[in-house]
Design a protein that fits this description.
The chain has helices at residues 92-99, 112-117, 166-183, 201-218, 235-244, 257-260, 272-283, 304-312, 332-335, 339-356, 414-417, 439-442, 447-454, 464-485; strands at residues 7-8, 10-14, 31-36, 47-49, 60-62, 67-70, 76-79, 88-90, 121-123, 129-131, 137-143, 187-193, 221-228, 247-251, 291-296, 318-322, 385-388, 394-395. Helices cover 30% and strands 16% of the residues.
Length: 488
């Protein structure tokens, strides 16, 4: 008896970052997997608009620039640049059915619907277009304090004792809910940051209580996350965060000395032991699985694999992020990313992923700013993301907190602030990216970082070569994971 064709794909990644992430409707294709991965950026919205089989005679052919690679046991990974979600895994029967579309033909098998949905087959005489869906989540970075108990080498914050007052915080929450109601957002995501936000936890508790009231009154959903170094988090505070439904994202840049070199305490001593204590002795016993964000520089790239093993052994979500140059960083020339060092370190980390192969979806956390769903813009700047300073000043991004565009007392209007300092150029308008098979995954990279490196907004990311070499490996890992979770 002929084996039934099978196609596996994860269609419901929910990638959470320190900025605003991807919105877009997802529905069941074959296998649905979900994850929340905290990184430090803002994703955009988008969903593929396909002409579909509008007439019985419309012919389709195999996507001409699809990436194909064998996995194991007669399973193949197939990835179209126009895929709305991630890669597809096909058994041999499905693979042969797909190969039949090397010659244009009319879809006439039930399985062809899955190939259509993943754009592995495309209309011969009709173009596919990516259209942005209206974002449904308004995300705000709340810079609650300039104070911190660490002295991280790459930090962009000018440290001081200044902090957000309850009055400014309440103004901010009011302005966000007003903007959400006016602009049609169905959800608000608050990211409490700093500095070290747990040093101003009383404010966070006040804002949480107030935001919950407004959420209930308006019907607008609420998500919250604290971006912390995790050094001094008590059990009582951890229990409050758990009971309040606030997520935790903890920064961890290595194990032992490799972490301590980049994230020392203000007195120069290491912070890894304190973070390990927080995770192992406080959070995990309480059933709290924090998201881990790991910032990669040239100094710690060699140690990323060890950190990945430590994190995955605890079944924690992980996001691998690249160092962002800034004026306040210590020794920026030493921290700056060197392609070969970064690629080699990431490949070693990927080998750990393959060895342990978590069932938890991890594709969105494998490579800085790269998303499993298709997008034309990397971040939600100008559309669904805003940053608020401790003084209530409005900024496009946490990397531009010193460039105020107004104050929350005047209200928040994203369209009014559009393009003032950051131009979120769509990847479709970047000549260097038009033919790249991964253009709708990295979306051209961080626009601000590209501008700082090149002086232009309309060119490819300075990390383009890293993306091109590593993303096929990341796709392969996702393919192996899909086989595992489906029992193959």
């Amino acid at each position: 008896m002929t084996e039934q064709p099978l196609l596996f794909v994860a269609k419901a990644y929910a990638h959470e970052t320190h900025c605003a992430c991807a919105d877009g409707d997802t529905q069941l294709l074959a296998t649905v997997s979900q994850t929340d991965v905290v990184a430090d950026c803002a994703c955009a919205d988008g969903v593929w608009s396909s002409p579909g089989p509008s007439a019985p005679s419309l012919r389709y052919q195999q996507a001409p620039d699809a990436l194909v690679m064998p996995l194991r046991d007669d399973y193949h990974l197939a990835f179209s640049p126009l895929a709305p979600y991630g890669p597809s895994v096909l058994n041999d029967t499905a693979y042969q059915r797909w190969q039949a579309f090397q010659q244009p033909r009319i879809p006439d098998h039930e399985f062809d619907t899955l190939l259509l949905e993943q754009n592995l087959i495309q209309p011969v005489d009709a173009a596919l277009q990516l259209q942005r869906t209206p974002p449904h989540t308004l995300t705000a970075w709340l810079h609650t304090t300039n104070a911190c108990n660490l002295d991280c080498t790459y930090c962009y914050v000018r440290k001081s004792s200044q902090r957000m007052s309850p009055e400014v915080g309440i103004q901010t929450i009011n302005a966000l809910f007003d903007a959400a109601q006016r602009d049609g957002f169905s959800e608000i995501k608050l990211k409490y940051a700093g500095g070290e936000p747990t040093l101003n936890l009383s404010l966070i508790k006040t804002l949480h209580d107030y935001a919950r009231i407004l959420s209930q009154e308006t019907g607008i959903g609420l998500q919250e996350v604290i971006l912390t170094n995790g050094v001094h988090l008590s059990a009582s505070n951890a229990r409050w965060l758990r009971d309040a439904g606030i997520k935790l994202a903890i920064s961890l840049d290595g194990i032992g000395s490799s972490h301590d070199a980049q994230r020392p305490q203000v007195d120069g001593s290491g912070s890894f032991a304190a973070i390990a204590h927080t995770i192992d002795d406080i959070l995990l016993p309480l059933g709290i699985h924090p998201d881990i964000t790991l910032t990669i520089t040239s100094l710690n790239a060699h140690a990323v694999a060890d950190a990945v093993r430590w994190i995955l052994e605890r079944d924690l979500p992980l996001s691998l992020n690249f160092y962002r140059s800034n004026a306040n960083a210590a020794s920026p020339e030493k921290l700056a990313l060197e392609e070969r060092i970064i690629i080699d370190g990431m490949k070693a980390a990927y080998r750990v992923y393959e060895e342990l192969l978590p069932e938890r979806p991890f594709l969105d956390g494998l490579l800085d700013r790269v998303q499993s769903t298709a997008h034309t813009q990397t971040c939600g700047v100008d559309a669904s993301y805003i940053a608020i300073t401790h003084e209530g000043k409005i900024s496009q991004c946490q990397m531009t907190l010193d460039r105020a565009m107004g104050h929350v007392s005047e209200g928040i209007n994203l369209s009014r602030h559009k393009g003032q300092f950051i131009h979120a150029t769509p990847v479709t308008e970047k000549d260097d990216c038009r033919t790249c098979p991964f253009r709708y995954r990295c979306s051209g990279g961080c626009p601000l970082e590209t501008y700082q490196a090149t002086g232009r907004w309309d060119v490819k990311s300075p990390h383009c070569n890293i993306y091109k070499e590593l993303y096929p490996l990341a796709l392969r890992l996702e393919g192996l994971r899909l086989l595992k979770v489906n029992g193959f």
